[in-house]
Write a structure and sequence with these properties.
- The structure holds 3 protein chains of 3 kinds.
- Chain A is built from 15 helices and 11 strands.
- By secondary structure, chain A is α/β, with parallel strands linked by helices.
- Chain A folds into 2 domains: 183 residues, Periplasmic binding protein-like II (D-Maltodextrin-Binding Protein, domain 2, 3-Layer(aba) Sandwich), CATH 3.40.190.10; 153 residues.
- In chain A, helix 7 crosses helix 9.
- By secondary structure, chain B is an all-alpha fold.
- Chain B has 2 domains: 235 residues, MetI-like fold; 256 residues, MetI-like fold, CATH 1.10.3720.10.
- Chain B has a two-stranded antiparallel ribbon with strand order 1-2.
- Chain B is globular.
- By secondary structure, chain C is of the alpha/beta class.
- Chain C has a single domain, classed as P-loop containing nucleotide triphosphate hydrolases (Rossmann fold, 3-Layer(aba) Sandwich), CATH 3.40.50.
- Helix content of chain C is 33%, strand content 25%.
- Chain C has 6 helices and 9 strands.
- The chains are: A alpha/beta, B mainly alpha, C alpha/beta.
- At the A-B interface, helix 1, helix 3, strand 2, helix 4 and helix 10 of A face helix 14, helix 18, helix 20, helix 21 and helix 24 of B.
Chain lengths: 453, 573, 214
């Protein structure tokens, strides 16, 4: 008995030691991992702190970078497919250029803008935390106004030629503001709609709304089946801009012209009144009586899948068939464009003036603009975001990358966008947002308070 | 010990004896430091923002925030009601199934819930109660006539009912298992069971016997866990983020938004908010303790009034019903979660998906390597540190021959009782002051604060139960204290250490706020990803993340269960 | 005071499928039936069967009649059978008086206090009502436990090696007190014990069980 006990004890203690050893070695290993990237970060930040010039075709040919730079890409992270695409890109630039691309997932791009702004006011002019940012519209306007972006690099990217910039102003103007080489185009978007054809069955009482006016009437007949993401969400703001532009279709030319001017107190009242009148009618018919809004377009898409909503919209039409193929939307989904026009714009990537790795960030931007990356991005099962590349600039082999199979039934039919509506001046975003929040943001609170008492 | 005053103790003994002080410092300093670093900015003193004067600007801004009253009320109501519900249902289950084999069955059914992270539980509950959730699917269209999902208000309802439901379902198993843990202590448990038997013999119906005999002895041991639950429920962010309203959210969620806002000036308001949160949680804890005192004062005479039956049959039936409901809820939620993770098309009224596919798992797995790696590495380091520290402290207990003081046992609960939202932000400020690059180390350290208490509590009872005669025999054979610890005690504690490790890993895996804040958003784990995706595009993807989140800790527990069997088997061969 | 009768009819007690004991007995009020036997012979299981708390691995056939009423299928708390264990098992969250009042049937508060005082005086514990049970000596605790059981007005009493933890002199005194009170209240009692002096003092029938080992 004592012998067995002793032996058992001995054996057990050996396992104890093994367990202990495993823990300790893991611990040491991980500590190494923890400190190593930081030291690399520090050294590489020093080596490239002198602002580099823009990259050229030759410098790109010079294969992998010697160091192993970390590029922090600040991009909206609410969609798993987009996140997966960025991860794919990260793998590519790792293999091609030895760059560690980190996706910093934002819930709102304005977070990145304020971060760079805060760094500038704190005097951090060389070691900023943002290397690359996904941006357009109002955020771009803010950043360029405060000189927060690195200028004159995007137009010199080797792959920029594929966008045919001479004949295609969409890649050099962001909501009417010239980009001045501060941002490289990444994708193109139009506001298109999609619906559940089992819920909107086309019967006399349930016709598909194809204009803003029909939308209002349809929603009144089918309350709770439509809504839009809560401003300042990008997609929600886009719906409001679409409504604003359409509502002014028949307005006096003078008032209409204000949409392309900077918004101020005087013209705001004049221009926005029709929008508020429209929303006052629309809101009571919306999902949850317009007292609660979804946070994002992604959430709106899920509500369509849940059949809570019957009609929704997106800025990225190929996203719809992609979602159906992933089962994230029902088979009965169909896409279409409004007959009174589709709001269109381009989205870009930009580099803050104080980026720690401006050179590596340009390499990433150039890669994102390559036919290979653009074609992969446009593939419906990947992301389905429309390419900014003009096919005529490509070689036949490169064009072949973009060939797709027969369109999915839920995809937007070819040539369905009959007319495009251009974005109003970016300053209108702020004006709409302020007005919306004072009207509906506060009312939401009051309404729910009344509900309680 | 006093017999050898002139011989200097060896290094091991000195390290061991020092370790409780180290533990105290490790727990108190960050919490206190964090609180102070929140306190100062709240009153306007924020060197990082070049503000050096004391004023109440933060509080006046806080006061002017629209909906601030509603936020506070929402926090109070959801925290208090969910804790109360979980507590009462726990007692009812214990009372009606005390000494019955059903108690064990219920325990087996509920204990896996314990390791499910809050975020995953919230996602599962959300799937259940949404207008297109499992409930309305099961009732449609045959009963309701709904062909499309109805206009509902869950989740995100303005009254916080969804939050209360989620918190109750999650905290109920925790409290129940804590109580069963107390009853599993050999001496106390036996005594309480015998006393319960005596009361039965005296003609008390089982439920009354439980409340009059067992509860008064049981409650003091349940008090700290209950208070920890209350503190957590009133100040957590995962549940309200996933299930709560956004016009306005709970106070804790609002504070989190202000703190993480890049407009640094909002941090002053956030600090003031953190103080308010501290007041709210502190007030709730005080309210609970006060309520307990009141109940004791006014109802203690009922203990001896001789009444043996308070409609026991009714309450027993009610408890059976509630237990069945709770278990049904949990099972339905889990089934829903699993089905979503493999669902192909699944249009609303259908109770089952049209087809089952694995592509969601495949897609998610491809993106999961980094968060998975982070989760595992952070979890393993944190747990290893926590276990080493806890073992040293417990060894110190045995070397000095006295149990850790009441003070230490209370301090161990400190990170669980002080709302993490209140001290974490201060802690992160401090960490950034010290070194703003070592985010990984910061995350590990912050996790340690939350892992350590659980690991310590889990190891304590087994360590104290060790038969001291083994150590005495070894010492009489000339073994040094260090070797007694390594060669005699640790091998005997193999299984409990594995259990503690599994628990530590589970706690670390589940941390959301500490990871988010200490990592500055740059370190993603499975949990941070799951919360980010929870309100996003795809139910299927968030179901996959929630399942992975549940599976990780389960793997740890299964290993802890299998490994000792394997080793002991080989030892016997 | 009416006398009670405890009857055990056709009891067959099994562990798994093995017969442990069979019994047919009647105990009249004031009588003490003593059961002796080695451990494992089923003594405790017999008591557990009588109180309705038989463990899962046992099963039994037969009936318990209390005053001709079959209580075999009643739950433990409705049987009115009091038990005295070798440990006093006093509730440490209640005072001495609280422990006893806990056991008493519901009645007027003043009356209860009075009864408790009287009872304590009767067993030599006058003035101890507000003491905490953990501060009492072993003999005192045993007496409180006895009072607690008696004042619950049981119809029968089971004694599970009740005196085995007391030293000799205390044992004799306590035993006398218990047996006197049982006779005074004319309650049927069954005692399980290892100790022959207990059995003799009980002055009743003695059944010795055989070990059911091999």
């Amino acid at each position: 008995m004592p012998l067995t006990r002793c032996w058992q004890l001995n054996t057990r203690h050996r396992f104890g030691i093994v367990a202990f050893f495993v823990y300790t070695s893991l611990f040491i290993f991980v500590l190494c991992c923890a400190f190593w990237p930081n030291s690399v970060l520090a050294s590489s930040a020093v080596s490239t702190s002198a602002l580099s010039t823009s990259i050229t075709a030759e410098s790109i040919e010079s294969k992998k970078l010697d160091e192993n730079p970390n590029v922090y890409f600040y991009a909206w992270g609410g969609d798993a497919q987009i996140n997966a695409y960025i991860q794919w890109a990260a793998k590519q630039v790792q293999a091609k250029y030895n760059i560690n691309l980190h996706h910093v997932k934002l819930s709102d791009t304005s977070e990145a803008v304020s971060r760079v702004l805060a760094e500038k006011s704190a005097g951090n002019n060389h070691k900023g935390s943002v290397d690359l940012v996904w941006i357009n519209g109002a955020n771009f306007a803010t950043m360029s106004e405060h000189s927060l972006l690195l200028p004159n690099w995007a137009n010199k990217l080797p792959n920029f030629k594929y966008t045919d910039p001479k004949n295609n102003p969409a890649v050099t103007f962001d909501f009417g503001i010239p980009t001045k080489g501060m941002e490289a185009p990444w994708g193109q978007a139009s506001l298109t709609f999609y619906y559940d054809n089992l819920a909107i069955d086309g019967s006399a009482n349930n016709q598909l709304p194809t204009t803003l006016d029909q939308l209002l009437k349809w929603s009144a007949k089918h309350p709770g089946r439509f809504s839009y993401p809560k401003p300042p969400d990008y997609l929600g703001m886009s719906f409001l801009k679409y409504a604003l532009v359409v509502l002014h279709e028949k307005s006096d030319e003078k008032i209409k012209a204000q949409l392309n001017q900077v918004a101020n107190e005087q013209n705001s009242k004049l221009v926005l009144t029709p929008l508020w009148d429209f929303l006052n009618q629309l809101h009571p018919t919306l999902w949850r009586h317009g007292q609660h809004f979804m946070q994002s377009g992604a959430q709106m898409r899920r509500l369509v899948d849940d059949t809570e909503l019957s009609l929704a919209f997106t800025f990225s039409a190929p996203e719809v068939p992609a979602a159906v193929q992933r089962f994230d939307l029902p088979k009965s989904i169909r896409s279409y464009a409004m007959e009174d026009g589709s709001l269109s714009n381009t989205h870009f990537v930009a580099i803050p003036y104080n980026a720690s790795q401006p050179k590596a960030a340009q390499l990433v931007a150039n890669f994102l603009l390559s036919p290979e990356a653009q074609a992969h991005k446009q593939t419906p099962s990947v992301w389905g975001d429309k390419s900014v590349i003009i096919p005529t600039t490509l070689s036949p082999e490169q064009q072949a990358l973009f060939k797709t199979q027969t369109p999915h039934p839920s995809a937007l039919p070819f040539n369905s966008i009959k007319r495009t509506l251009s974005e109003p001046h970016p300053s209108w975003v702020e004006a709409i947002l302020t007005g919306w929040q004072s009207r509906y943001g506060v009312r939401l609170l009051e309404a729910s308070n009344e509900h309680d008492s | 010990m006093s017999m050898t005053p002139n011989i200097k103790p060896d290094l091991f003994t000195r390290i061991v004896k020092f370790s409780p002080r180290f533990l105290l410092a490790l727990l108190i300093l960050p919490v206190l430091g964090g609180l102070i670093s929140v306190l100062l900015p709240a009153f306007g003193w924020a060197p990082a923002l070049s503000q050096y004067s004391f004023n109440l600007q933060g509080f006046s801004e806080l006061w002017l925030t629209p909906g601030i009253g509603k936020m506070v009320i929402l926090s109070i109501v959801t925290g208090l009601v969910s804790t109360l519900l979980a507590f009462v249902i726990t007692l009812m289950i214990l009372a009606s199934f005390f000494n019955s084999p059903w108690l064990n069955r219920i325990q087996h059914l509920l204990s896996p819930i314990l390791v499910i992270p809050h975020a995953a539980a919230a996602i599962a509950v959300g799937f259940l109660i949404a207008p297109s959730g499992m409930f309305s699917r099961l009732l449609s269209p045959w009963l309701t006539g709904w062909e499309l999902a109805p206009n509902g208000m869950f989740p995100h309802d303005p009254y916080g009912i969804s939050i209360i439901l989620g918190l109750t379902l999650k905290e109920l198993p925790f409290l129940l298992l804590m109580a069963l843990g107390v009853l599993a202590q050999p001496e106390l448990g036996k005594k309480l069971r015998q006393q319960h038997k005596v009361a039965l013999n005296l003609g008390y119906c089982p439920m009354t016997a439980f409340f009059k005999v067992v509860l008064p002895s049981l409650y003091p041991l349940l008090k700290l866990p209950t208070l920890a639950v209350l503190a957590y429920a009133s100040a957590n962010v995962e549940m309200p983020l996933i299930l709560g309203p956004n016009t306005p959210p709970t106070l804790a969620v609002a504070i989190m938004h202000w703190f993480s806002d890049v407009d640094l000036n909002l941090r002053i308001k956030a600090s003031a908010g953190a103080l308010l949160q501290l007041l709210v949680t502190g007030g709730l804890l005080a309210l609970w303790v006060g309520g307990e005192k009141t109940i004791k004062h006014f109802f203690s005479h009922l203990l001896t009034n001789g009444e043996r039956e308070y409609g026991g049959v009714f309450w027993q039936k009610l408890t059976g019903l509630i237990t069945a409901l709770v278990i049904g809820f949990i099972i339905l939620a889990l089934i829903g979660l699993v089905m979503w993770s493999v669902a192909g098309f699944w249009r609303f009224p259908a109770a089952m998906p049209d087809q089952f596919v694995l592509s969601h798992f495949q897609n998610a797995m491809m993106q999961m390597s980094e968060p998975l790696f982070n989760s595992l590495v952070i979890g393993v380091i944190t747990t290893a540190l926590a276990i080493i520290l806890a073992l040293l402290c417990l060894e110190a207990e045995q070397l000095t021959g006295k149990n850790v003081s009441r003070f230490i046992s209370l301090v161990i609960y400190l990170p669980l009782l002080v709302p993490s939202i209140a001290f974490l932000f201060g802690l992160v400020w401090l960490q950034q002051l010290i070194n703003n690059q070592a985010t990984f180390t910061h995350v590990v350290f912050t996790h340690l604060l939350f892992v350590l208490p659980y690991v310590f509590l889990s190891l304590t009872s087994s360590y104290r139960r060790l038969d001291p005669r083994f150590a005495h025999v070894a010492a009489s054979l000339g073994t040094t204290p260090g070797n007694v610890f390594l060669k005699v005690k640790l091998p005997q504690l193999f299984a409990p250490i594995l259990i503690a490790a599994a628990l530590g890993l589970a706690i670390s895996f589940g941390q959301y706020l500490p990871t988010l804040l200490a990592g500055g958003g740059r370190i993603s784990t499975i949990t941070t990803e799951a919360v980010t995706l929870a309100n996003g595009a795809s139910r299927r993807t968030s179901a996959v993340y929630a399942i992975i989140q549940m599976a990780l800790p389960l793997i740890g527990f299964i290993l802890a269960w299998i490994l000792p069997k394997y080793f002991f088997k080989s030892a016997r061969r | 005071m009416q006398t009670s009768v405890l009857e055990i009819k056709n009891l067959e007690l099994f562990r798994q499928e093995q017969l442990l004991l069979s019994l047919n007995e009647q105990v009249n009020g004031g009588e003490i039936l003593t059961i002796m036997g080695p451990s494992g012979s089923g003594k405790s299981s017999l008591l557990n069967w009588l109180t309705g708390t038989l463990a899962n691995e046992f099963h039994a056939t037969g009936e318990v009649l209390l005053n001709n009423q079959n209580v075999s299928n009643l739950p433990a708390h409705l049987r009115h059978i009091g038990v005295l264990y070798q440990d006093a098992l006093l509730f440490s969250h209640l005072t001495v008086a609280g422990n006893i009042e806990f056991a008493m049937p519901k009645c007027d508060k003043k009356l209860r206090k009075q009864k408790v005082e009287q009872a304590l005086e009767q067993v030599g514990l006058a003035g101890m009502a507000e003491r905490h049970p953990d501060n009492l000596s072993g003999g005192q605790q045993a007496r409180v436990a006895l009072l607690r059981m008696l004042l619950s007005e049981p119809k029968a009493i089971l004694l599970d090696e009740p005196f085995s933890k007391l030293d000799t002199q205390l044992r004799v005194d306590t035993r006398k007190l218990v047996f006197d009170l049982i006779r005074e209240h004319k309650l049927p009692a069954i005692m399980v014990t290892h100790d022959h002096s207990d059995a003799e003092a009980a002055q009743g029938k003695i059944i010795t069980l055989q070990s059911q080992g091999h």
